[in-house]
Amino acid sequence: MSTIESILKETRSFPPSDDFRRKAQISGMEAYNALCEQADDHYLSFWGDLARELIAWKKPFSRVLDDSNAPFFKWFDDGVLNVSYNCLDRHLPLNANKIALIFEADDGEVTRVTYSELHRRVCQFANGLKSLGVAKGDRVVIYMPMVIEAIVAMQACARIGAIHSVVFGGFSAGALRDRVQDAGAKVVITANEGLRGGKTVALKATTDEAFELGGCESVSSVVVYQRTNNGASKWTEGRDVWWHKLIEGQAEECEPEWVNAEDPLFILYTSGSTGKPKGIQHSTAGFLLGALNSFRWIFDYKPNDVYWCTADVGWITGHSYITYGPLGHGATQVIFEGVPTYPDASRFWRMIEKHKVSIFYTAPTAIRSLIKLGADLPAKYDLSSLRVLGTVGEPINPEAWMWYYEVVGGGRCPIVDTWWQTETGSAMIAPTPGAVPTKPGSCTLPLPGIMADIVDESGAPVEPGKGGFLVIKKPFPSLVRTIWGDPDRFRKTYFPDEFEGKYYLAGDSAHRDESGYFWIMGRIDDVLNVSGHRLGTMEIESALVANPLVAEAAVVGKPHDIKGEAVVAFVVLKGSRPSGDEARKVADNLKQWVAHEIGKIAQPDEIRFGENLPKTRSGKIMRRLLRSLARGEEIVQDVSTLENPQILAQLQEAAN
Ligand code: ATP
Ligand code: MG
């Protein structure tokens, strides 16, 4: 029976201010606990009541959960609804003129779209898709830049019951081809070009390349949105159609296709941090409920908020917390095209000031890179509109958390560290900020209704302080329904026999502290075994990042004759990449630092410096590649989602 050891001790804790707590939706721990108890005692009516409260149904459901074919669960399955209706039409009677989207383009140009305008655009484009023969259940791949039309395309698919699969606009032709082929798409929606950090991204040309690779035969039409004046280099008559031509003369109303709760809403491929991406299939009602409910709870959303999530719609965060959750609530949200560092590292802070953003949601990778490029920049802007700050995607190192809290949030805004996955569809473990005190580096407590736990290999709960497998013990509405086309892989990956197929296995390791708080320690696949001690990656990395010289760090294991595994750390400094004697000196200092901060056992045996780390296009560190580098192996894994292949060469060289 093996558990994972926790060596990092973090004792800082930040309760919400009295003022924040008083005004919050879930106000104080008593309110939070009461909801948890309700879920414990009456699990099905807890979710059933939320589904009735938050979703507008065409036909109500009569049964909450069907678990007769577990782990293929069905929720609300005889209910009938439409997601686009829920996100648009239902706001029109009272809020037609409320701003839905504030779009800031790569060059800073701002466009505002009201709910009635968004409704009109979605209807027209939905009618356009219908004219191409797209019908309920057909798959549509969306390979777009982060512009208003990407959201219009997703909502239009939802409106006509088509299943979208968004492929991040930074992916290569090969990655696009794989996803088009796996999904069996009928239509691909793209743009002639995208804009990112002052450069153009050749989306249409890459789409053409994907077709040339073969395997896209299911596709009958490619819709091309004209984002730049450059036109398109190649045009395939009969297949390619301009977006603006497609909507010409289309009606501005489109009756929603009323679908069943369990009809798929979308497929989204995972980031590929740990292996070949999986086509995660989400349902209509369960997904929508997860997005709507978590959105209001984790951000304490109020109708006058200006919300900004910096994710791209190519990731699950962009689905749940841009296209569906906020629009479902009739929120005003900022969306942006480009990168956080263009035209300079103040982009985020300038935008928060300009649009008076009150809720801001970003990723640890962005925070770490902005600390590296200008820790003092936020102070130059008026960020007083902010009241809640969120983070998602990776564990946030406590020191990056503290910077976010103090420098960006002015010590005033709760940090909601939201743990979840493409598979869970919505946030699972995260503070409800008017109740749960936060701790730097902890995603705190599960949302009410989420039965998260940490168990050992036999499925028994582990004691506080011991790490184990993060599981969710009961199905919940927004959980992945299957892996597209591969139900067997679904069952084996997420409901393995080790736990008698009963628990959802997240694939992350975690531990809980004495107050029941969850601390994510890393991926199960990445756990190190040093002299019989099983260590997660997160804590050693956080110890490194706590050193004033270090911007980012990733650790992996490599075989060692005596210890079993040696710790190899890949480090990015805030200054430039050191070499030679200087590198050796810094490496020695960092080793001693780690030994002193968390113990000799975690001290890296080897340190390598790079200007960056290998990351997925969503900014997550790809430790599986680092593991190969550390072992001196050739890289044979799937690298289709790797953002920066050129960085691998730098990291081959040890500093000591
Ligand atoms: P793949 O499953 O293909 O390897 P991935 O797991 O990176 O890719 P996502 O679904 O985008 O794909 O990411 C979910 C994972 O991200 C989680 O399992 C967890 O490891 C990490 N993660 C997300 N949010 C947090 C968070 N707040 N704290 C710690 N880890 C997080
Ligand atoms: Mg994953």
UniProtKB/TrEMBL annotation:
Molecular function (Gene Ontology), one example: AMP binding
Catalytic activity field: acetate + ATP + CoA = acetyl-CoA + AMP + diphosphate
Binding site for Mg(2+): 545, 550
Cofactor dependence: Mg(2+)
Gene3D superfamilies: 3.30.300.30, N-terminal domain of ligase-like (3.40.50.12780)
Post-translational modification summary for this protein: Acetylated. Deacetylation by the SIR2-homolog deacetylase activates the enzyme.
Family: Belongs to the ATP-dependent AMP-binding enzyme family.
The name this protein goes by in its record: Acetyl-coenzyme A synthetase
Gene name tied to this protein: acsA
